[in-house]
Specification:
This protein has helices at 2-9, 41-46, 50-59, 64-73, 83-93, 104-124, 145-166, 170-198, 203-224, 229-236, 261-283, 301-309, 311-317, 355-380, 383-388, 391-422, and strands at 23-24, 100-101, 292-297, 320-326, 335-340, 343-348. By secondary structure, the chain is of the alpha/beta class. A hairpin with a 2-residue loop joins β5 (335-340) and β6 (343-348).
Amino acid sequence: MIMLGLRFMDDVPFRDVVIHGLIRDEQGEKMSKTRGNVVDPLHVIHGATLEELLAGAKAGGAPPAALESIARQYPDGFPRFGADALRFTLAALAGQGSDVKLSVKRIEGYRHFCNKIWNAHRFLAPHLQEGEGREARLAELPLDLADRWILSRMNAVTRGVDEAFAGYRFNDAASLLYQFLWHEYCDWYVEIVKTRLAAADGEAEKRTGRILLGRVLEQSLRLLHPIMPFLTEEIWQQLPHQGESVMVAPWPVADPAHDFPQAVESMDCLMEITREVRNIRSAYNISPAQRVPLVVKTSDAHQDAMLAAGRDYLVSLARLAHFEFGQETSKPELAATVVIRGIEVHVPLADVVDLDAESSRLQKELSKADAALTRIVKKLGNEDFVRKAPAEVVSRERAAQTELTDHRAKLKASLAHIERYVKR
């Protein structure tokens, strides 16, 4: 390409060359037809049956042992992952100075990421209204805490992705966009706006939510386009936008007027409280449909103001029946308690959990965990198993041991907490 550029254009077509690591299989082995571990990108993109995988390997001269390996690894072949999922996987794993271990599971995970973005657009599309697109001025919108938070986070991600691309750190750019779109935009802001749109009143707030959902998604798609060109172009064309294609749309630039560090700090705290309430629900087997009370003891007026601003978010996202907070609140006699940034968070259990039934359930769960953990410890203690079993099997057993150990510790803590009151 360089010689052709010099010959016909009197200039080189590019001046920077990125040398990436070798793409290996998911065990870190070099891909080889004789091993049967070659992953054909066209099979990943378009999907392939086991018969098609074997036919391709035979055409490449793979021996019978390699064909057996393919049949063992991919008994059902490949589903259709698409080009964007494969491109994103390669970008996400392309850390500088290291080879890429290409895992089909990771490709599948990033296909779910593609679906997540599609679903966010499907939710937004029916709510988009004519004239609420690029023409709306954000300075004129009534921004609440969540609105300021998402704009500030969009700014931070824009700066981060820009710096990552400038430094050829494609994996950092992919990670920033993945975390932001999935875990902040979809998991939090979309859910907050859903509640707002379902309310009977608050037309100005609904309009703000619609506009910001579209603006943030549109800007995110422009940032994501170099990695996922097909999905981003398709969705971008259906959003309010300027220009003919996302390919030639202006590169996003952070707006300092939309930096709200205090809103980010407050939302981080509110999200942490919500996560802890959800963890308590899971630990005590409380149905997601059942609303629970929440008592929060604060230590200053700043925390009071933060909880007042985020009250509606907590009630909706944590599914609260009653929410009490303040510097004078007291801890209920029986409650699951966590401390978050100096704030005492109590979920009263007396009227929510049948203590005797829950104690019995936890004891049974603990017995199952003990038995499973004993089996795994015995298996890993067998030197023949560790030496002869495939590395991925041993690794999976060790991961299961770690997970069971953590689960057992949580069960014991929950059981000890409940039994203190059952025995009264």
